[in-house]
Every structure is written in C-alpha cells, then in structure tokens.
Amino acid sequence: MNNDITRENLKTLEERIDRLATNMEKMKLAEYVRLLESPWRLLYINFISGVARGLGIGVGFAFLGAFVVYILKSLVTIPVIGNVIAEIVKIVQIRLGTY
C-alpha cells in the first residue's frame, strides 16, 4: 500500500515537471536568460526597437498633422472661423515652404 502511494506521488510529480518544462519552453525562458547574459546584444535590440518606435511616431504624427491641415483647409469656407483657420493654414504652409 505504501508503495502504491509513492508511485502515485512520483507519477503526479513527473506530470507536474513535464508541464513546467513545457511552460518554460513556451515562455522561451532560456532565450531570455541568454539575452540577459549578453548586455551588448540587449542594448542593440533595445536600440533598434527604439529607432523603429521613434520612426513610427514620426510618420504617424506627420500623417495626423497632414490630415488636420486638410480638414482645416476644407473648413475655410465657414465665414465665422474661416479667417482664423486660413491664417493658421497660411502659417503652417509658410513654415513648410509650400506657400
């Protein structure tokens, strides 16, 4: 009887270890530890991701700014706020060198 309990415990323990190993493989824990052991590689990866993030922000802001200017240009026909918006668009165009 005591032998059966021990075998049952060993089988349960083996299943848990297998699940733990599978979860560690899914998390790619070994790759993460290797990355932490190589500070230059970590710096390089962070630098590249920072450049990509900055480029994305710059391009996104440019598109958003162009969209806002386009909307402001179409609102110029409203007489009450048309002059103010026209001045803003004019200033932006002068800054961009397209006026």
Can you give a write-up of this model?
This protein is an all-alpha fold. The chain contains four helices and no strands.
Give the gist of this structure:
The protein has helices spanning 2-27, 29-37, 39-74, 79-96. The protein is mainly alpha-helical and 99 residues long.
Quaternary structure annotation: single chain
Work out the strand percent: under 5%
Number of strands: 0
H-E string: HHHH
Question: Main sheet?
Answer: none
- Mean pLDDT across the residues is 83
What portion of residues is helical? over 70%
Structural class: mainly alpha
Span from first to last CA?
A: 93 Å
Morphology call: elongated
Could you name the ranges where pLDDT drops below 50 across 5 or more consecutive residues? none
The value of Rg in angstroms is: 31 Å
With helices defined by DSSP (H or I, 4 residues minimum), what is the helix count? 4
